[in-house]
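Hi team, as promised in this morning's meeting, here are the two structures we talked about. I've kept the exact order from the run log so nobody has to guess. The first one is mostly here for context; it's the second one we should focus on when we meet again. Sequence first, then the predicted structure tokens.
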Amino acid sequence: METPRRLQPLGVRAFVGVCGAGAGERDIPRTVCGKPTASVRVGPTCVAYVGRYDDALTFDDPVDAQILYTGRPFVDDRVLGNCRIDRHTMPAPDKIDGKFACLVLKPDGLDLLTDCIGAGTVFYAQEGGCLYFGSHLGLVVAALPGAPELNELGVASQLASVQLFDETHFRGIYRLEAGGCLSAVRNAEQSIDVRQTHGGGIRGLLDIEVPPLTAASFRAMLDRGAERERYDDNAILMLSGGRDSLAIALTRAPTPKRCATFGEPRSIDVLRAKRRARRLGLEFMAVPFQDWTLETYLDEIVMLNAGCSGLQTAHNMVGFDWVSDNADLASIGYLGDVFRDSLFRVLENGAEENAVLRAMALRLNDPILKDVFAKERETMVEFIRDSFHDLARDVGPHKALAMLRLRWHQARWISMTFDLCDWYLPISYPFVLRDLIGAWLQCDLANPKARGQFDLSLSEALIEHGHHPNPRGSIPERARNKFLAVLAMAGRGGHVIHTCDWEAIIKRSRFQPQAYDCGHDRLSEFTRRSWDVLQSQNFRTNVKPAIYSSAAIAAAFQRFSQKETPPRLTQTPAA
């Protein structure tokens, strides 16, 4: 009897592929952001990928299956890449935890999986009888035979920093839903059948068995989230001035002994994080920003995420890029925002619609967005209201707000920011623990005392470490922090923003100033007007942050409207 072979899943930076007839003859990028891709073909599927550590992937002959993943998926508190899996065997999505996107290659097709909140990014499109897929939106765009049509509603949603829809800002390109599984199987006619299995996603977290949420159980679950990451001397904590990364630093589980902070030199994050590191006995490193501009990372922003993010993302990217020379793994307080009591205070006086809109998308009221994308904005407002009311009837307004915010803002918009950071350095997400998120969603979120367990657990941890129980510090410290925040605001952007030359960006990235067929003129107008405000004397008090996305989106559309056919992929046969 044949002994089943065991597979070693491979963690990669990114993957892109096509499944269907003639897949091996399709054009798939041979390089991604200057890095050469390796290629593999299993059955009707051809995949190109970029290895995380330049690792080589070898196969037995014939190839039966292979698993590629991005992020850090866990099975029984072990990283998936450290598990050896029987041939044809893959744990069910509800048995895998953490933030991840998985591709399971099979002789007759493939499976695409993402985590329970949909933070791991998987994009796909069907065209010409084939399924195109990838871990990053821009890679799917680059693999498609032609430039896709612009979806203005998706653009407006992106500029409002809340990704509401499964369809992206390119028509026909979709994002896999939370906890979902997309399968492509070759049928008897040798064509591809594509079906999507709904895994329950965020809504399913209401049904899992978890302990009641208290300050103690919150800390215990966060401890477990940090424990399973298995930090060593080459790990580092990205410590900011906020509560989320501080909570990780205070866990009782082993945590990184070093920390790094990225931000302008006089920013509140840098100044506060430096004090916290000293008090906690952490080795502190400040990321230098002296030589950084948006142009430095524009190729990655456009190629990987098709311009979905811009200056705000690049603030993070420069930090992780610099830290990658000093560490093998970075820990972040991702998703901590949704555990804060302040998120739900908008509902204390009733589920007033405008309050819900403010909690969901702060930039919906940006006057330039309201003017240039008026029709799309009204569609988004109506969609948010309808979605909130429909869900609130089932689970109540507080849970409805939490679930929508978690899906649309945290798991989509923010996750795409950190997917770009993960390109430079693998990232650990201790907060993305199924039990922790499920216990928080299941508690009485209408009760301020119940939903305040995160702050209470943080206060208790600070007391244990001999610090002031208020995460924001004593009254004198809060006054000092306020002064530092004003000081930081006065200098913020003085170097970083004003060294971003829009014309130079376009020239450096080889863009052609040809209007996109669908709505590019409107986006260019939005970009120009926002850019004028951003560089005006009123910038320090009247920020229009949507420019952070719009500049790169405009650049991406210009690039893809002139997209050249990439060199044909040379297949590497299984050896």
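And here is the second protein, the one for discussion:
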Amino acid sequence: MGFIVAFIIGLLLPIKIMWLWLWLFVLLLCLSYFVLYSRRLWRLHYNWLFSILTLFFFIALGLIRTQQTTPTDLEDLSQAVYIEGTVCAEFTESESFFRCQLIIEAYRDSLQSYPIASRKSWLYIRKDSSSNISSLPIRYGSQLLLATSAWRIDTPKNPMAFDFAAYSANQGVYYQIFTDLSQTKLLAHKPPHLIMAYALRARHYLANILAFHIESKEAYGIASAILIGIRSHIDETVQTAYAEAGATHILAVSGLHVGIVYWILLTFVGYFARDWWSKLLFLGLVLFVLWAYAFVTGLSPSVLRAATMFSVVAIGKAIARRSNIYNTLAFSAFVLLMYDPKLLYAVGFQLSYAAVLAIVYLQPKFAALWTPRYRIIDYFWQLTCVSFAAQIGTAAIGMYYFGQFPTYFWLSNFFVIPSAFLILVIGFAMFILSSFDIIASWLGTALEHLILTVNALIDSFSLLPFYAWKSLYLTAAEIYIFYALILCFILFYEKRRLRWFVLGFSCILLFSSLQFYRSWKAYGQQGIAVYDIGREANVAISEGNEVYFWLDSSLYHHKKKIDFAADNHCKSKRLLHKNYNYFGKDKPYLHFKIGDKTLLWCRQRIIEQKLDVEADIVVISHQYKYKPLDCSALKAEQIVLDASNAIQWNKQAEEDIMRSNPNIRVHNIHKEGAWTLFW
């Protein structure tokens, strides 16, 4: 385990070292000499030196992989006339766009073409009323000529909002392209990876089998997610219900699914592996099926982890060697991170390893607390122990990323995990027997009824008291404290030393103090915020733990936009109760009194005139049609020019305000992002 910790430290260190390859070579030579030529007695006395050399070797290896996968200079493609590239992922569909990843291979200006090192970009193709994803002429491996430019992905302009730029960079994507089908020319078809092309073709074939034999769209969405890893067909309300019930892990193909596939192979084929050649044949079958399944389901981080781990287990079984599960996990993590260091930042990767490590260590400890007499009771007890162990391992990560904790996770797993097993078995049987229409139809009907029953049970959880804890917020520091707490109590259990208990209890006090301080600070707080939501005007007024959003009509009817922009910020400020208010066009301005501060929200033509206004804060919206205002009569401390104004209008207004009254603070949301003030 130690080497993977050192390797991860190297991946995380934000430093660049010159001649890093030379240092790595020197460390490798020292390690080789130590192992091959030094005497046994010398190695025994200086084993600490070997450990230090190994530690620095893997740290250096991590630093090298980080530098290799992080581009230092990115080309400016915003002035390009044409972009050439190859589609390197499947398309997904949203309300307005088809989206995929594109490898940019060259760009052209008006004179010539310039090849570049392969850079990835998000490609967004606008939808029209008649287009759908099945009729899209572009697929994985399509080489395209796009009559447009590519832009760097902006960092978020709202506080604590989802950082799409960082999320994309962790996948090696740094650009985004928006275009129409009319601006897209198909040049050729050359898949970047032939195996992936065949896997995606197999995935489409299996998806068609599911669609043919399952009539319910709701059941089809769940079946395609569990069986072949396509989650784009799941209704948002269904996905939310699974998340709040603590059952969302069955919708993402993970170790549970790969483990069931391995168990099926072991049960129905492993019996025949008796001599060395049949064991070798069985090993080849297991490796082929596991990795074929991983490719077909999309190679998510959790699938990669599970496929690598079970591959190591299968190899150990074939050569009659039992491997240590912790070493197996460490080896699988090392292989995956060597291949793609950015996986370390993937939520699925973090949740997967946290869950498995917790299950491996904690589940036997919990199970040993009670030994039921009857097998059926023991089965549910073991399932409960697994559920609690996994939740302890993933609770902090889940609250950090998703802001909620499922209260009844232990109850939902009683039927969700057995149901996932049945869905996989029935689904695989349907795929194998798809040529026999009658049998496949029966299996499809059984699968549909099973999924709809599970969905109904999941929905019933919302009727239970204290259904789920929502609007939770943890900082990165609190996550580290949480896992330090777990580690301290594990060491106390293993070592029986009082100091570990004291340290663990100190972690509890520190964690609770941080949470209490944030709640106490929010109790009497007041605040104002203007968020960047495109051309939509908005003002948020906060008192205590309540926030009142005043919104344009278009934004009022699409509240998801304001929630997406402001949700994390509201959670961090403990603003748990949201109220939405409509600011109609019939009102040219609104006047607010918040504590000892006054706010005037101006819009429409009112600001064409000279305003004799006294307000601490003035927010100006919807002036893109009008001339910049005359601000000589404004007596405000702060003026906020929001994103509903044109970019050029805000720029000119900012210059005019600063010229007429340099003492007024001006915040241009187009340039500086959202504006917030809390006291």
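Starting points for discussion:
Residues 375-402 form the longest helix (28 residues).
The chain has 22 helices and 22 strands.
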